[in-house]
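## retry 2 of 3
previous attempt timed out at serialization; input unchanged, resubmitting
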Amino acid sequence: MEEKKYLKWYNKIGYGLGDIAGNVVYAFLTSFMMVYLTDSVGLAAGVVGT
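## retry succeeded, writing output
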């Protein structure tokens, strides 16, 4: 059997920071779309959230 090789701590930190950055961008875009669709387009918040 082969020995399992685990990621080092700095690799885990690097992957985690990349994932956080992607989620921040996604949260910013979805927040902008919610404000735009409710204020400018005039859709109800329940419709946009669904």
